[in-house]
């Protein structure tokens, strides 16, 4: 409420009369000191830019599919502990679940076997290298035939290949241990399942003590909700007005008096044959965490705007045949006036006729004025 409007409604000090003075029908005149004036709040009619043409489609909030992870177990085994709850905020690589698994011991055994094979292969290559060096020296002194040198050279080549193969097997075993988060050489370690991304735990379907054998089943869903999508179905007759990348306004049932901003991130390539609609997805910033998946609302695409006179929706009294407001024409004097209204836009309503920009209207205790006007 502006200072001028507040002054017009009058917060006056000295109490005089407490009832409305006699006035013409439809007019209420309150004395300067009437306590009723303290109950009446006023605002000026103002001019704002509002849409003249817009596309409105129902929609709902969804998690960004590129930022949703379905967590599965890397091995079969028994769940030891679940370290998070549904709704918890987690960081990337934060432990979620610990488990004991025979597969972990099997992976450790495979690594130790591969390590032993590398050691054995290196020893074999060392002997083959020594045999080749000795045969080459003897050949230079005409002590052995050339075929003996070639035989030791072939044995050295095979020994080197055996080393390469053993090292490759060891690296594969090491990678397996790394996937499981295990330290080489230590048996009886627990497998720790970590969060693949930072976000919130949306779903949880595992408890301590379970023995899980299906490594493809989801045990937890973690989603980064810093950005969310609003998905809507837009009629094919209006889809030409919407372009990827453009700004749209989103209103939500959960926050009826707020308008959120987003930008179109994707428009489907096909039309729903039953509904004759096209799926449109808009991305919204949700770093404050107020927006939650499955919230319902609508997407507003503004095609054109115009300057429009508006008043608060609370200023309007709906009669059987028309709508009226009370305009304060001078301090303490309120004239009942019929108005023609347009569509509501959030907390304000368009005024097509009856009130001009700058005029002061009562926005609170309007029914009190209506009752006083009927007594005149």
Question: What keywords describe this structure?
Answer:
3 domains, 25% helix, 376 residues, 4-stranded antiparallel β-sheet, 21 strands, alpha+beta, disordered N terminus, OB fold (Dihydrolipoamide Acetyltransferase, E2P), 6-stranded antiparallel beta barrel, elongated, 5 helices, conserved putative lor/sdh protein from methanococcus maripaludis s2 fold, Elongation Factor Tu (Ef-tu), domain 3
Under CATH, the topology of the largest domain is which? OB fold (Dihydrolipoamide Acetyltransferase, E2P)
Q: Which outline best applies?
A: elongated
- Classify the oligomer: single chain
Strand content: 35-45%
CATH class of the largest domain: Mainly Beta
Order of helices and strands: HEHEEEEEEHHEEEEEEEEEEEEEEH
The CATH superfamily label of the largest domain reads RNA polymerase II/Efflux pump adaptor protein, barrel-sandwich hybrid domain
- Structurally, the number of domains stands at 3
Rg value: 39 Å
Terminal CA distance reads 29 Å
Largest sheet: spatial strand order: 3-12-15-14-13-16
Average pLDDT works out at 86
CATH architecture of the largest domain: Beta Barrel
The major pleated sheet works out as:
6 strands, antiparallel, barrel
Helix content: 25-40%
Can you offer a commentary on this structure?
By secondary structure, the protein is α+β, with helices and mostly antiparallel strands. It folds into three domains: 3-50 and 306-375, conserved putative lor/sdh protein from methanococcus maripaludis s2 fold (Beta Barrel); 55-66 and 224-305, Beta Barrel (Elongation Factor Tu (Ef-tu), domain 3); 67-220, OB fold (Dihydrolipoamide Acetyltransferase, E2P) (Beta Barrel). The protein is built from five helices and 21 strands. The strands form four sheets. The chain has a six-stranded antiparallel β-barrel with strand order 3-12-15-14-13-16. A four-stranded antiparallel sheet has the order 4-11-9-6, with no helix packed on it. The radius of gyration is 39 Å and the shape is elongated. The relative contact order is 0.21.
